[in-house]
Amino acid sequence: MTRARPSPKGLSRAYLLVLAPAAFLAPLPLAWTGGASREAILLYELALAFLWWRARRGRPVRISDAAMNVAGLVYLAWLGFSAATLRPGLLPTVAHLLLFTGLAKLASLKRPSEARLALLVIFLLTLASASSSTHVSSVLYFAAAAWIGFRTLGLLAVLADFDDAPPDRVLAAVPTRGLAAVAVLGGALCTAGLFFALPRLHGPFALTPFRVEDALGKALASDRVDLESFGAAKRSDRVILRLSSESDLAPEDALRLREAVFTDYLDGVWTRDPRLGARRGERAAHTLLAPAGRPGGAAVISVDLNVFGQGFLFLPYGSSAVQVERGHAVELPDGVMQVSSSRGPVRYQAEVRRVAPRGAGSGGISPADVPAEIQKYAIELTAGLSEPGAIARRIAEHFAKDFVYTLDPPRGAGDPLVHFLLRSKAGHCEYFASAAAMMLTARGIPARLVTGSYGGEEGLFSRTIVVRAQNLHAWVEAELDATGFQVFDPTPPGGLPPALQAFSLLSRLAALGREIEFFYDRRVLGFDAADQAGAFETARESLSAAAGSLAALKESARDLSPAALAAILGAALSGWMIWRGRSRTGKRHGPATQAYVALRRLLARKRGVVPPSTPPAEVARLFAEGVPESGEDARAVVAVYCASAFGGVEPGPDVVRELTERVRRLKKLA
Amino acid sequence: MTRLIPDWEIRVTNFGLGYILMCLVVAIAAMNTGNNGLYLVLAGMLAAMIVSGVLSRRNVRGVDCEIEAVGEVIATRPAWLKIRLENRLKTATAQALFFLHESLPGPLWVDPLAPREKRELVVEGMFPRRGVYRDADAGLLSRFPIGLFRKYRKARLSREIVVYPRPESSPVPEPVPEDARGGRPHPRSRGGGSDIRTLRDFSPGDDPRDLHWKQSARMRRWIVREREAERDRVLFLAVDNALPASDPAALARFETAIARCAGAALLMLSRGAEIGFHARGVKVAARSGQAQRTRIMDALARLEPVAPESAPDFPLMRRGDLRRFVS
Fold first, then answer.
1. What is the pTM (predicted TM-score) of this model?
2. What is the mean pLDDT of chain A?
3. Residue among B40, B59, B109, B150 with most chain A CBs within 10 A, to mutate
4. In A126, A301, A419, B192, which residue has its Cα 20 to 30 A from A173's Cα atom?
5. What pLDDT score was predicted for residue A311?
6. Is pLDDT above 50 for A543?
7. Smallest CA–CA separation between B96 and chain A, in Å?
8. Using an 8 Å Cβ cutoff, are A298 and A351 in contact?
9. Which of A190, A208, A522, A527 to mutate to test the interface with B (most CBs of B within 10 A)?
């Protein structure tokens, strides 16, 4: 078998310079997604930077085939050993292999075919990065990859026709920046259209919960909540949901969203009563009523829930009918709504009535679950009080006066709640709510812990409320009077999540980022067949509406009086003639004439009116008189103009460039 | 290195085929996994194909290319070609262009052409064989923008390029001396020269100045001098162009004969000889000088083989002229 003749060193250098930026960019996201170890990526980038630096200096590294073979064998042995013993997982193993192969190819570029192989490896690294990146910032990565990829492929296309080192100007000349920008923008538009049009056969692979931090996952993605992880979850900046309403919502309706109810406590962990898991049966009113049939004051809210665990829906108090985009909503005995679909972001609508907020059901914490220390503490604190409301108020006042709100409470031995009440006296909302629920139970008042969210931020582009992880909250539902489970929030005011507030300019920018993040999470990362069907339906409706508008316009055009029609036509004709006249004027003057006219204008600005009869030579003389240092430029402009206008000698590209330069100088001097 | 001048306008490159294959691979991976990151990559790759098609459509088509030879062109010897390029596009820069011509050792890089820019390039090339190039076997090639396709646009020839054969030294003998066959060659025609061919009876129309008075007196009738045409013996170089077209060896011999004929003609003309050229169906009258050099070289450049069965005869010669076949 004969091998292709090695390329000249200069050509290898050119290939390396062209491929290096793409190779540099390709694996970067793997460092954050865990697709490859950071040390390996750092080593790869440093080695690549060295190769690039050597190539820039005109001395590209070219390792011999024998050395590469030895290195390859050693690496394969190491790869086998690490896969067998360290078990880094499939993606890191493959990514490390790709990193090594890419680097090896770039360090030993001898033939164009090896450059193509290196390009393939870079592409595979890009695929690995793209498929494992779920953060919204990967949009930046895609943009950078598009720009650098276009440039790299463009230059490789040029190098393919060179058998020897190309002149340096070739690599600098192609592709021109303007065209590359147009290409990338056009490509981005096409990409957006194609992305939403490509057929989806499976549900999305990577969903938002996939990248939610552990704590947030524990706090939301299960039917148990532990006190430790809830505080950590609240530190997150993730968007949990976005809520919008057809009509104005009273702030109290939208601020407090109920998600799950907990009644069983053991050693810092709340779990749901297993008996509550038995479904009470599907709710009859799962179809929203038409606006006409709704009771007075009822509003319909739409919620895009971005984080999803056991299917518990965030709903305001007073929610009645709930309609879920996919699957069925089931109401559990404690009033919690759960959807049956397996996983994934979910969108739902609910009818919210203006009623006093009351939790459904009758289950509360069993008094037997209350630790003895807490019972004693509650009795001591509320001694002398018998009215439930007064007891609750005493507890809340006690917390506000003697306790500190913190997301990072000190840890101690034993039951965290006992530690919180008796020793640390510092905790976050779930500590306060848990302690209050326990203390109320200890005093014989039925109570339970409720998790959900409180507050939110106004959306930037629409009347929506964005609820983030920092808005996660816990409170108590207790039977403080005979009206059912009332909301009792014992968390000190300083610990309440930020309520609905207006945006400053800075926060608007931040909100824009959040909108993008939400859009990426919900509409890009979680885009699926149902979304696609919805998008097509929306597009179809938009087209129908546009067609209807057009028909209406046609109808209204028929009703136009002849005079109005004539006026419109006249205006259009005039506009067209003006445009045509301008474009013709623009075409008529050559560069020499344009330069001369510019010179005349400058002279007119300097000396007042320049009569049309002033000959070109006089124009140059007068200008030179006014600005002596510009005499040569003025004379040169006039000379080129005379040669063009009277001698029929059109200036070449070099002369045109020179003319432009001269006119620029003249403007500066004038 | 062998580079063929394309006979197509657009072709998918090997890289393009690989690209399409990778699109398929990514499509299968995306559909099987439902990974929207892969869907994004796939959409980007497909979008790049669309953008590539749109951008490259005008990149080559928008550029006019015209070529002409500068001076004399002799096969396998360096020759100058003038290339005129004009970007007719108003807004787009034509870029990543290569000029292809078989006279050039490889594709010639053309720096990007700004909108409406005209440019002239003079390049040194080498035509591999003699002949007449009426159709430009040249053009502009581009893989712009990302190498998925190769697009080619043929150049125009401002006029035909005649490539003369490369002269080779030949064993063609010098013209024989005048006495090689016992004196002056046999006169063949009447004319107005100074030598007298014969005496004959006067016939109407004869120039009275040709009357041979003494002989007329002797013969008692009008006798006139008939003069020999004023010309020397000339040499016609000849190449037999009747040969089977399917015989490569015969074709090679034919080309060698043409090259040797060119060598002999140039040598003799340089010595001031009067040389003509004959082939089947081709005749260049005998002359001397620089113009004759061009005529003979032009005839040799254009000489085509003809099939023996339909080949015309060699042109007739006047008596006394010589025809030497070059082989």
1. 0.60
2. 82
3. B40
4. A126
5. 75
6. yes
7. 6
8. yes
9. A190
Q: Is B272 left (phi over 0), alpha (psi -120 to 50) or beta?
A: left
pLDDT of residue B294: 92
Q: Is A266 helix (H, G, I), strand (E, B) or coil?
A: strand
DSSP H helices in A177-308: 177-197, 208-211, 214-220, 227-234, 251-255
Cβ-proximal residues to B136 (8 Å cutoff; 6+ apart), any chain? B67, B154, B155, B156, B157
Binning pLDDT at 50, 70 and 90, where does residue B226 land?
confident
pLDDT of residue A145: 93
Q: Which residue of A has its CA nearest to B141?
A: A161
DSSP letter for each residue of A120-161: HHHHHHHHHHHHH--STTHHHHHHHHHHHHHHHHHHHHHHTT
Tell whether A173 lies on the interface with B, counting CB pairs under 8 A.
yes
pLDDT at residue A567, as a whole number: 86
Q: Which residue has the higher pLDDT, A362 or B298?
A: B298
Taking each helix axis as running N to C, give the angle between helix B290-302 and helix B248-270, from 0 to 180 degrees, rounded to the nearest 10: 180
Please give the structure tokens belonging to residue A121. 């490896």
Q: Both tokens of residue A530?
A: 């149902």
Tokens found for residue B163: 């490539």
Q: What is the torsional sign of CA B66, B72, B74, B80?
A: negative
Q: Are B8 and B103 in contact (CB under 8 A)?
A: no
**A560-581 tens-digit pLDDT:** 777 788 888 889 988 888 877 6
The sign of the dihedral angle between the CA atoms of A172, A174, A176, A177 is negative
Q: What is the SS3 assignment for A12? A: helix
pLDDT tens for each residue of A87-104: 777 888 889 999 999 999
Where do the domains of chain A lie?
A: 9-197, 214-524, 590-669
Q: What does the alpha-carbon distance between residue B286 and residue B321 come to, in Å, rounded to a whole number? A: 10
**What is the Cα–Cα distance from B209 to B194, expressed in whole angstroms?**
13
Give the DSSP per-residue string, B258-296: HHHHHHHHHHHHHTT--EEEEETTEEEEEE-SHHHHHHH
Q: Which amino acid is at A406?
A: T
Could you tell me which residues come within 8 angstroms of residue A412 by beta carbon, excluding any fewer than 6 positions away? A419, A423, A424
Distance of CA A499 to the CA centre of its chain: 24
As its CATH architecture, domain B10-164 has: Sandwich (2.60)
Pinpoint the residues of chain B covered by CATH 2.60.40.10. Answer: 10-164
Is pLDDT above 90 for A49? Answer: yes
Q: HEC states along A399-448?
A: HHHHCEECCCCCCCCCCHHHHHHHHHCEECHHHHHHHHHHHHHHCCCCEE
- Residues near A281 by beta carbon (within 8 Å), at least 6 away in sequence: A330
pLDDT of amino acid A137: 85
Residues of A in contact with B146 (CB under 8 A): 150, 153-154, 157
Q: Percent of chain A having pLDDT more than 70?
A: 86
Q: Is B199 on the interface with A (CB under 8 A)?
A: no
Element (H, E) at A543: helix A529-558
Q: What is the pLDDT of residues A396-434, one digit of tens each?
A: 999 988 898 888 888 878 888 899 988 888 888 989 999
Q: Taking Cα atoms as reference points, which of B32, B44, B27, B40 lies closest to residue A520?
A: B40
Query: What DSSP character marks residue A29?
Result: T
What is the mean pLDDT of the segment spanning A110-118? 87
Query: Is the distance from CB of B273 to CB of B322 less than 8 angstroms?
Result: no
A190 to chain B, any CB pair closer than 8 A? The answer is: yes
Chain A CB within 8 Å of residue B3 CB: no
ipTM of the complex model: 0.70
Which structure tokens are listed for A468? 């983030």
Q: Is B42 on the interface with A (CB under 8 A)?
A: yes
Sign of CA dihedral B168, B171, B177, B181: negative
Contact A79, A96 (CB under 8 A): yes
